[in-house]
């Protein structure tokens, strides 16, 4: 354990040190939020946001419980990123904004920007919470810490790292994180499979269902794909590299490459979860599958791979926390509360809001442990993001979409999605029908409510507005 802990500590300290160095260059709000990035930086930051603790600990958890089909998490993400690159990157870039709510304002109005900013901040906090939980499992398995203590210690480290340099720090460390993630996971898989006697032993020991691509159920697979496609197009942390790329060609190329990097990763971590099932068939908590497997390997190998998991979490949690600060600062503070704010005031508020967002993630992680799987938490967030994108699509392509109707549809859809997930966590299945997931119901509600409410509450014409004022 001492060697693994030493390697993880060194990696964590190097990362924070780089963040501190980056702070010297984050002297403006543009530096803090990011601007003018090239293909490599956009790819590593974008891939890092998608390949977080959910793609390592989370997918391994599903691999331990269901087998290879858990890999659909990252495959679905890759599909979603491809759709974003091919159909929406150019449009988003043309709008000259650095936030998703800023995009929404262009088509629905400033009030929709404020509402969507608040909703998407909650979504980002849900994603950040999932990452903190994944990180805390490292502290539980490696250090033997109590879960709550692990959350507080690691969560505090994440916040300090993000506040230190913002997007500058993330861009500096993202390349290191991506290399550590892929290299560490491949190294671990080769040793883990060898330890159990090879792939043939894996096939002989596990049920045939573990090698089926549909073992988690086609309703869940299709739900994940739909949620990923819709969610990718409104994911602030994932879209931000596209919005701050040097130009539209860089943005599109980076997004396509990112999808190719993200998609296959889950296959590796699902296989690690399956290997853990062979070696440790009776784990009390499937979330511990990957960390437990790492601790059973040779100390140096285990330490490197545990560092890879930490790298995956760091590469996601920081952009997510930063995205909260960016949206609240740009979409509410600068756009509505204080348009005349100086750059230094914007930078100060960004850091304060970013820090508060991180603290909220830590607090919720303390409350949520054991109540749901990490991937379920993530896909609830994807569903809400996707529902907002459905409303945005109506605004782009249906001229009768009204501001009041769209805002009401956003709020109603979010409420329905929350009720659906809460019901499942209490009763173990979704309302109405077990296969009617939160993704399906949220998309349906978003479509119906946008149309109906836009017709009931149409935008006022210029003549009606003038009469109202008189």
Q: What is the C-level CATH assignment? A: Mainly Alpha
Major β-sheet annotation = none
Mean pLDDT over the full residue set: 80
**Beta-strand residue fraction:** under 5%
Number of helices: 20
Total count of strands: 0
Pfam family, one: SSF
Subcellular location: Membrane
Family: Belongs to the sodium:solute symporter (SSF) (TC 2.A.21) family.
GO molecular function: transmembrane transporter activity
Structural account:
- With 470 residues, this protein is an all-alpha fold.
- The protein has one domain: Sodium/glucose cotransporter (Up-down Bundle).
- The longest helix has 50 residues.
- The termini are far apart.
- 57% of the residues are buried.
Give a concise summary.
The chain is mainly α and 470 residues long. It has helices at residues 2-23, 29-33, 39-50, 53-65, 72-94, 100-108, 110-143, 147-196, 199-205, 218-232, 236-243, 248-262, 265-279, 289-295, 299-337, 343-368, 374-397, 403-427, 438-456, 462-469. The chain has a single domain, classed as Sodium/glucose cotransporter.
């Amino acid at each position: 354990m001492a060697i693994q802990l030493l390697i993880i500590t060194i990696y964590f300290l190097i990362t924070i040190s780089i963040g501190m160095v980056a702070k010297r260059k984050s002297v403006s709000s543009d530096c803090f939020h990011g601007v003018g990035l090239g293909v490599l930086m956009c790819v590593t930051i974008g891939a890092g946001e998608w390949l977080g603790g959910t793609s390592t600990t989370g997918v391994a958890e599903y691999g331990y419980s269901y087998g290879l089909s858990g890999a659909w998490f990252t495959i679905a993400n890759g599909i979603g990123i491809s759709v974003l690159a091919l159909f929406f990157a150019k449009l988003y870039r043309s709008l000259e904004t650095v936030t998703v709510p800023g995009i929404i304002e262009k088509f629905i109005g400033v009030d929709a920007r404020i509402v969507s900013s608040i909703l998407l901040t909650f979504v980002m906090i849900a994603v950040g919470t999932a990452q903190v939980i994944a990180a805390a499992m490292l502290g539980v398995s490696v250090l033997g810490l109590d879960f709550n203590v692990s959350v507080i210690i690691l969560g505090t480290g994440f916040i300090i790292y993000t506040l230190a340099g913002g997007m500058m720090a993330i861009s500096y460390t993202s390349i290191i994180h991506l290399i550590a993630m892929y290299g560490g996971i491949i190294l671990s898989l080769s040793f883990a499979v060898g330890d159990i006697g090879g792939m043939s032993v894996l096939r002989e020991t596990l049920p045939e269902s573990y090698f089926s691509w549909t073992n988690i159920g086609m309703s869940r697979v299709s739900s994940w794909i739909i949620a990923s496609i819709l969610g990718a197009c409104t994911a602030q942390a994932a879209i931000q590299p596209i919005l701050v790329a040097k130009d539209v060609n860089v943005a599109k190329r980076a997004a396509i490459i990112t999808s190719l990097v993200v998609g296959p990763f889950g296959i590796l971590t699902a296989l690690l979860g399956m290997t853990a099932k062979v070696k440790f068939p009776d784990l009390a908590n499937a979330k511990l599958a990957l960390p437990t497997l790492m601790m059973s390997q040779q100390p140096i190998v285990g330490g490197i791979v545990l560092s890879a998991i930490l790298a995956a979490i760091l590469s996601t949690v920081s952009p997510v926390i930063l995205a909260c600060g960016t949206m609240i600062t740009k979409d509410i503070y600068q756009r509505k509360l204080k348009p005349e704010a100086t750059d230094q005031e914007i930078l100060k508020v960004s850091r304060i809001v970013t820090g508060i967002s991180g603290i909220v993630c830590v607090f919720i992680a303390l409350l949520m442990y054991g109540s749901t799987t990490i991937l379920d938490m993530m896909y609830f967030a994807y569903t809400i993001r996707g529902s907002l994108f459905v409303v945005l699509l109506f605004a782009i392509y249906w001229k009768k979409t009204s501001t009041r109707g769209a805002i009401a549809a956003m709020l109603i859809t979010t409420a329905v999605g929350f009720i659906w997930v809460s019901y499942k966590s209490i009763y173990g299945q979704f309302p109405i029908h077990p296969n009617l997931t939160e993704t399906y119901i949220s998309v349906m509600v978003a479509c119906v409510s946008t149309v109906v409410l836009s017709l009931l509450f149409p935008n006022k014409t210029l003549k009606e507005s003038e009469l109202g004022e008189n």
